[in-house]
Amino acid sequence: MKLSLLAVGQKQPGWMEEGYKEYAKRMPREWPLQLIELKPEKRVGGKTAEQVMAAEKVRILDALPKSARLVAMDERGARWTTMDLAKQMEAWQQDGRDVAFVIGGADGLDPEVKQRADQLLALSPMTLPHGLARVMLAEQLYRAVSILNNHPYHRE
């Protein structure tokens, strides 16, 4: 089962890129994690947040791996524990579909992306820099897989 992280935004600070790469490379072969960076829409010419999100929506849906389960990151989404994520990943593995996590741009995700999502998931009720959200999500995916593999990385 492949995991994809579609993220609107490019050129993150070096430490954020390194943090993401560190956890992505730790993922086992049966759970590869791929980052797909999408160009953010520029807010020029008086574009509204809705227009920006609509343009980014097209990029997100075009880049979404075919037949993948869509998990949209949203501050109003479900608040899972790491154990909840591990259990969910185990269930996803049973249905065999790839999973794509989506982090929107500065204005968030277009409502159509959220409606189309199989799940809305929150990393935190706090506002996070998008690059840090990538690192946190990659770390939590690695930790969840470690739990599933009975690895001592996670201790309860």
TrEMBL record:
Gene: rlmH
UniProt KW Isomerase keyword: no
PANTHER family: METHYLTRANSFERASE, RIBOSOMAL RNA LARGE SUBUNIT METHYLTRANSFERASE H
Role description: Specifically methylates the pseudouridine at position 1915 (m3Psi1915) in 23S rRNA.
Originating species: Leeia speluncae
Reaction catalysed by this enzyme: pseudouridine(1915) in 23S rRNA + S-adenosyl-L-methionine = N(3)-methylpseudouridine(1915) in 23S rRNA + S-adenosyl-L-homocysteine + H(+)
Alphabetized InterPro entries for the sequence: Alpha/beta_knot_MTases, RlmH-like, tRNA_m1G_MTases_N
Binding site for S-adenosyl-L-methionine: 104, 123-128
Protein name, as recorded: Ribosomal RNA large subunit methyltransferase H
Enzyme Commission number(s): 2.1.1.177
Gene3D superfamilies, A to Z: 3.40.1280.10
Pfam families linked: SPOUT_MTase
Key words, A-Z: Cytoplasm, Methyltransferase, rRNA processing, S-adenosyl-L-methionine, Transferase
Assembly information from the UniProt record: Homodimer.
HAMAP family, per the entry: 23SrRNA_methyltr_H (MF_00658)
Main location, first listed in the record: cytoplasm
EC class name: transferase
Compartmental location: Cytoplasm
Protein family per UniProt: Belongs to the RNA methyltransferase RlmH family.
